[in-house]
Design a protein that fits this description.
TIM Barrel, alpha/beta, six-stranded parallel sheet, 38% helix, 279 residues
Length: 279
């Protein structure tokens, strides 16, 4: 499962924006998770399909060394491709470092459920110490910098961000992070509630449930000022999932502004401080 369940270890300590304080019209952010040297060929197909459906820009969640399978800053072809994506308006977002959480014999039942069953061992920032989280964040920033890439945001693998890791994200100067149910402005300490659509495809029953759940969630979020759609490369391996995603995107782009997390956050800050609707 690639989503983060509610858990006391996950950061929730920012005050929400008061209801009615802000309206941004209607926007859509499509994020592609797990962008790396390993997944690049699939991501290229995803971007082509999305652009064909009216999504010219996305937030690309980049893993510097995906499962220790190859560093982005040591792959010239990846560096060149990523630079071209950013030049076209896509946003780069740091997404962990290895995207992998080593399991330990001391993990309790709740931790095993969240970090193994729900996320297949990929909750890298779920329970890191402040020091270790800071170290990985600095390594990630250095890898992106070596590629000529800047990341305003950090999004933890599977949206599992522990309290100490969240503190490290803020101390390392990232402007924002997201959880499955919200966007957090690290600079100003505000939280915007916004549930992300996301698919789980690791088993047939998960795919069936995902189709039903996201259809229902899409309808429920119809009037929401921000719609978020989180995609993963394995989604494109399943025709029914890919077709459903593109169908939802066609419906959403009829009356929604397509943007990135960074650009949406800039509009949000303007609205909060000036009391005006961004145009």
């Amino acid at each position: 499962m690639q989503t983060a369940p509610s858990n006391s270890n996950v950061v929730t300590g920012f005050p929400p924006v008061a209801k009615g304080q802000l309206s941004l019209g209607q926007s859509l952010v499509v994020s592609i998770h797990d962008v790396s040297t390993i997944t690049r060929p699939v991501v290229e197909r995803m971007l082509a399909d999305l652009e064909g459906e009216g999504v010219p820009v996305t937030s690309l969640l980049v893993i510097p060394d995906h499962h220790h399978g190859g560093r982005i800053d040591q792959d010239p072809d990846f560096v060149s491709w990523m630079a071209s994506c950013v030049k076209r308006g896509h946003e780069s977002v740091l997404h962990g470092f290895y995207h992998l959480r080593p399991s330990t014999s001391g993990d309790g039942m709740a931790t095993r459920l969240i970090t193994r069953s729900y996320t297949a061992g990929e909750g890298e920032f779920y329970d890191l110490s402040f020091e270790e989280a800071s170290r990985l964040l600095r390594l990630g920033k250095d890898a992106l910098k070596a590629c000529g890439i800047y990341s305003a945001g950090f999004i933890a693998p599977a949206w599992l961000l522990g309290r100490e890791a969240a503190r490290a994200v803020k101390e390392e100067g990232f402007e924002y992070t997201t959880l499955i149910g919200s966007i957090i402005d690290c600079r100003e300490g505000r939280k915007f509630p916004s549930r992300s659509l996301v698919y789980s495809v690791r088993a047939p029953w998960r795919r069936s449930v995902s189709l039903l759940w996201n259809e229902m969630l899409f309808k429920r979020l119809k009037e929401s000022p921000l719609m978020r759609l989180g995609l993963h490369p394995p989604d494109w391996e399943h025709p029914a999932i890919r077709s459903h995603i593109l169908t939802l995107i066609r419906a959403a782009t009829v009356d929604r502004r397509v943007t990135t997390y960074r650009d949406w956050l800039d509009l949000w800050r303007t609205s909060v401080h000036e009391g005006e609707l961004p145009r």
